Amino acid sequence: MSYLDELAQIARNAGQAILEVYGEEDFGVETKDDDSPLTRADLAAHRIIVASLNELAPEIPVLSEESDDIPYETRSTWTRYFLVDPLDGTKEFINRNGEFTVNIALIEDGVPVQGVVFVPVKDVLYAGDQTSDTAYVETAEGRTAISIRAVASPLTIVASRRHGGEALTACLEVLGRHFDDIDTTNMGSSLKLCLVAEGKADLYPRLAPTSEWDTAAAQAVVEAAGGRVVDTDLQPLRYNTKANILNPFFYVLGDTAFDWQAILSQVEISS
Questions:
Q1: Is 10 left (phi over 0), alpha (psi -120 to 50) or beta?
Q2: pLDDT category, 166, cuts 50, 70, 90?
Q3: Is 102 a residue whose pLDDT tops 80?
Q4: How many CB atoms lie within 10 A of CB 144?
Q5: Crossing angle, helix 4-22 and helix 40-56, to 10 degrees?
Q6: pLDDT band at residue 34, thresholds of 50, 70 and 90?
Q7: DSSP category for residue 180
Q8: For residue 126, how many C-alpha atoms fall within 13 Å in the half-sphere facing its CB?
Q9: What are phi and psi of 48, to 5 degrees?
Q10: What is the DSSP letter of 168?
């Protein structure tokens, strides 16, 4: 069963609540135990999404970034659940640059099979369903199917606006030995994965920490569009396999016919 339409509407409703806070001067910023910021917008979106998902499919449990105290002893029994980041890119929200999203994914046996990523400021929604190879972007002008592109010149790489470091530098150096022309675009939140999904970028190397709710929805979009999200051994990124909800370092690959292994295997990474 596809929940894409319902997930899209829930994400839009959460996005509206986020924009209401975005228009105010005081975001009510707090600091969580992991030193990451939390705003009234995060909490408002969380409440809307969890209540809506419970109404949509009460038999499917929900794991949200703002309800991450669910013990692994409980989560490990889930074969199907919703994984949510109510406001991905809270720092971007606080800085008012518009690069934040609402992420909702359906996970089955560790695989993100359906996902929506909504960009409230732009009123743009990305959606993907791996079970039907359906991937699209929806704007005010309507819905358009999206897919990854063949590797092109210049090679277009998308990178985090805030997280680079030595591993990314090493990766770019290796890529520079194989491609004469490289363009790099920096961006916040899960929008980076969506650029690969819609054929506007070839590769997103994420060689810095992320959590599972940061990537699941966009991974569903990428893979429904024909791409892959893999760890540094080029094995598929999977979910709810351990108590820790941190992802390994990973690559988002567009053209799966391209021999990424031959190049990325040369990148030396200590994660």
A1: alpha
A2: confident
A3: yes
A4: 10
A5: 160
A6: confident
A7: S
A8: 29
A9: -65, -45
A10: H
Residue 271 has pLDDT above 70, yes or no: no
Q: What pLDDT was estimated at residue 162?
A: 63
Give pLDDT, residue 161.
65
Contact between residue 75 and residue 64 where contact means Cβ atoms under 8 Å apart = no
Retrieve residue 157's tokens. Answer: 């790489």
What CA–CA distance (Å, rounded) separates 131 from 90?
31
pLDDT value at residue 130: 96
* Pairwise CA distance, residues 107 & 115, whole Å: 9
Proportion of the chain above pLDDT 70, given as a percent = 98
By the 10 Å C-beta count (0-12 exposed, 13-18 middle, 19+ buried), 147 is classed as: middle
Q: Which tokens hold the place of 21? A: 């806070």
- Structure-token pair, residue 20: 């209401």
Give 193: exposed, middle or buried? Use CB within 10 Å, 0-12, 13-18, 19+: buried
Residues 6+ apart with CB under 8 A from 182: 154, 155, 156, 157, 172, 175, 176
Closest CA to 87 of 69, 106, 103: 103
Distances (CA, A) of 174 to 8, 10, 183, 209, 258: 39, 42, 14, 21, 16
